[in-house]
Specification:
Helix content: 55-70%
Shape: globular
Structural class: mainly alpha
Number of domains: 1
Distance between the termini: 40 Å
Order of helices and strands: HHHH
Number of helices: 4
Radius of gyration: 19 Å
Number of strands: 0
Largest sheet: none
Strand content: under 5%
């Protein structure tokens, strides 16, 4: 399969800019709502307001999305690139089905990270930052680790 249809065109770039602006607005609103709910929760004891016990649960919105929204978008663009490159819809989860996935993704992660550390910003095949590819690889390895934990418990 040729790679001619993988590079982003003006329409992709415009869509990404719109999505970026929408995501920034969404995350700013979510962050404000979370701050307000934290304040309300601290005032709830003895006030008749409801309580929610979240101890031991991951603070996904507050501790990841709000911190790393731009990184998430960059990694999502790598997913989009891979979906087009391998002609696989997101719902197929093709990346999970790769034989020897952990080792192969670790190798790819290290190739991209090494290229980034050598000063090569963009991957010559995709035209996307090596660091974004490395971020995708880290996410894939974490996801596979967690998936394997569930399979063995």
């Amino acid at each position: 399969m040729g790679l001619t249809n993988i590079a982003p065109d003006a329409e992709d770039l415009d869509r990404w800019r719109r999505e970026d602006a929408e995501a920034r607005a969404y995350y700013a609103k979510a962050k404000a709502n979370l701050a307000a709910s934290d304040l309300q929760a601290s005032q709830a004891v003895g006030s008749g307001l409801g309580r929610k016990y979240d101890a031991g649960k991951a603070p996904v919105a507050q501790g990841f999305v709000a911190y790393f929204a731009k990184a998430m978008e960059a990694i999502a663009r790598i997913s989009e690139y891979g979906s087009k490159k391998y002609n696989a819809p997101y719902s197929d989860q093709n990346w999970r089905k790769v034989e020897g996935a952990e080792g192969r993704y670790a190798d790819a992660l290290m190739r991209h990270l090494t290229a980034h550390l050598r000063g090569e910003e963009l991957d010559p095949e995709s035209g996307k930052p090596h660091l974004d590819h490395a971020g995708w690889g880290i996410c894939a390895l974490i996801e596979l680790r967690e998936q394997n934990k569930k399979a063995t418990t």
